[in-house]
Amino acid sequence: MTDQPDRFSEHAGPSMECDPHPPLPTPAQTPYAEPHWDALQSERLLIQECVDCGERQHFPRPWCRNCASETLDWIESDGRAELYSYSVPRRPVEVVEYEPAVPYVVGLVDLDVGVRVVSTVVNCDIGDVEIGMDLQAVYDHVTEDVTLVRFEPA
Ligand SMILES: [Zn+2]
Q: Which residues in the chain come in under a pLDDT of 50?
């Protein structure tokens, strides 16, 4: 025993009623991306395609990143993809909410429709993740209103 006060004692008692790991933040949902978010709710992946130049893009934007046209349509991906590259965060970066999530796999994922997206690779051991591996979209209903697309080995 020592006379030193327990440095964690201030966190004991009623303050422990607070959830030390609040839910992860969810992306902001913008009006022009509404079809994308609505489709995710029903486990469909929509990608923007420019009517004027044919450029496809993800994440959704109010204009084409290639020609600045505001005439955009939506195409559906069947979720087949290939892992272009990845990284494994092992420490949360300034966002305490991510502490219980590490380590996880952040991937640059090439969709079958020719668009590269940033997402997480799930449902496999980190040691089994390889550049070039075939992936398939899976849908994570993180809240009642928000579904995120992630990828697992195909
Ligand atoms: Zn365009």
A: 1-21
